[in-house]
Amino acid sequence: MIIEYIRQSIFFFRSNITVLAKIHLPFILIFNLLLLQIEQPLSSENSDSLLYISALNLLFIPIYWGATIAFMQSTVEGPQYTAGQAIVASFSNWPRLFLVFLISSICIILGFMAFIVPGIYIAVRLSIADYICVVEKKTPLPSLKQSWQHTEQYIWPILNGTAAILMAIMLSKYLLTSLLGSILNDYQYLSLLLDICFDFMNVLVMIYGFRIYCLIKQEL
To answer: Tens place of pLDDT for every residue, the chain, 220 residues?
Structure first.
C-alpha cells in the first residue's frame, strides 16, 4: 500500500511539476539566496541574520504550502488552478494555516526535547492538520484535534511513507554533493542549485501526505 501511494505521489509530481515549480521555486530561491549571504562560521551578527531569515521563511511557508494544498484540491475536485490562482487562494488561508503550523511546530519541538520519539509521534498525529485547515476551512485548534483523532489508525503508513521519501531525497543529495566534492574544488553556486532542487523535491512529502489525507476521508 505504501509503495503504491508513493508511486502515485511521484506520478502526480511529474504530471504537475511545472505548476508546482511556479508555486515553490520563487520562495525557495529567495530563502537560499538569503542564506548564501551568511558567512561561515557564524558570528553573533550572522546568527541574528539567520534568525531573521528563518522568521521570514516561517511567514512564507503558509503561502506556498497553502497554495500547494489548494492546487492539489483543485486537481481532485476541479477545475484545476493555475499557479497564480493557487497562490491567491492561499492568502485567505494564511492566518489559519500559519497558526496551525506554529502550534504544531511548537508541539513537535517539545516532543523532540523529550527524547525524540514523542516528537516523531506528535508530528505523525498532526500531519494532516494543514490539509484539514485548507480543504475543510477549519480553524487551527479543530484542525489539530481532528488530525490527532483521524490519524490513529494510519500512523505507520504516514511514518513509513514520509521516512522513505525523505531518506531517498537526502541520500540522493548526499551522493551528488559527495561526487561534486570529489571532482570540483569550488562548487558553491552549483551546490546552491542542488539545494534549491532538492528543497523543491520535498514537495513530494506534501503530495504523499495529501494522498493519505484523501484516503482517511474516504474511509471515515
So the answer is: 899 999 999 999 999 999 999 999 999 998 888 877 765 555 555 666 667 777 888 889 999 999 999 999 999 998 999 999 999 999 999 999 999 999 999 999 999 998 889 999 999 999 999 999 999 999 999 999 999 999 999 999 999 999 999 999 999 999 988 888 778 777 777 888 888 999 999 999 999 999 999 999 998 7
Distance CA 45, CA 212 (A): 43
Task: Enter the DSSP assignment of 81.
Answer: P
**Intra-chain end-to-end CA distance of the chain, in Å:** 18
Residues 34/55, Cβ–Cβ less than 8 Å: no
- Whether 130 contacts 97, CB under 8 Å: yes
- Return the SS3 of 103: helix
| Nearest-angstrom CA–CA distance, 64 and 59 | 10
pTM of the full predicted structure? Answer: 0.92
Residue 116, CA distances (Å) to 29, 110, 119, 122 in order: 31, 9, 5, 10
> What residues contact 192, with CB distance under 8 A and at least 6 apart?
32, 33, 36
Any idea of the CA torsion for 75, 193, 31, 208, to the nearest 10 degrees? 30
H/E element, 150: helix 140-150
Residue corresponding to grid cell 494555516 = 97
Q: Are 154 and 212 in contact (CB under 8 A)?
A: yes
